[in-house]
Specification:
Length: about 110
């Protein structure tokens, strides 16, 4: 699998809402220069993610706070998927949960 990935990053780095290009180029838009977005994610609570893609424009929001905003036209079509990275040898991740609710997909006109 490769392509655009809206990151959920509960680490101290706090890049939730950043966009990563899985399997190809790496970070397309990290949040190192967006302190407001880095503070918007609430660990252990329900968070609202919004992703807007229209043409080559990609914008993300976390709990209503603008996060990523850039243009990229490498991938014009693909799939929408929900992914949880493998636990692997990270024993601290065993038993953790990720949940989604109220997922809506709307075509932009």
């Amino acid at each position: 699998m490769h392509g655009y990935q809206f990151e959920i990053d509960p680490s101290a780095r706090a890049f939730t809402g950043g966009v990563y290009d899985e399997g190809r180029r790496g970070w397309l838009f990290d949040l190192k220069n967006n302190e407001a977005a880095r503070k918007a994610f609430k660990q252990g609570e329900w968070n609202k993610a919004r992703i807007e893609c229209k043409g080559d424009s990609i914008k993300t929001f976390i709990n209503g706070v603008p996060a990523a905003d850039f243009k990229d036209d490498m991938t014009k079509e693909g799939v929408i998927a929900l992914q949880v990275h493998g636990v692997g040898k990270k024993t601290e991740a065993i038993g953790k949960e990720v949940m989604w609710r109220n997922i809506r997909i709307q075509e932009l006109k």
